[in-house]
Amino acid sequence: MMSGNNKPTNWMPWAIAGALLGAAFTFMIGSVFGVVGFIFSREANNAYKSGNIIDAETKNYSAKKMTLLSLAISALGIISFILYTLI
Length: 87
What we know:
Layout: H1 12-25, H2 29-49, H3 53-86
Helix pairs in contact: 1-2, 1-3, 2-3
């Protein structure tokens, strides 16, 4: 979250990474959450630029949740892929 008028954390690069990893390793399941995280991140950046700090905080929090969910699902996909190739 943000404190004062500091710019929110930009989750966009992580959301893109989650979407790409989700597309590669989880048959597009993780990709959906990465795309949603990207959209929320873009909306948070736009809200901050327009001066709406509270809206930027809420959208940034949603972007964080969706991005971390995408990365977690992608990590499970990578682990299962590694286990599948070893067995």
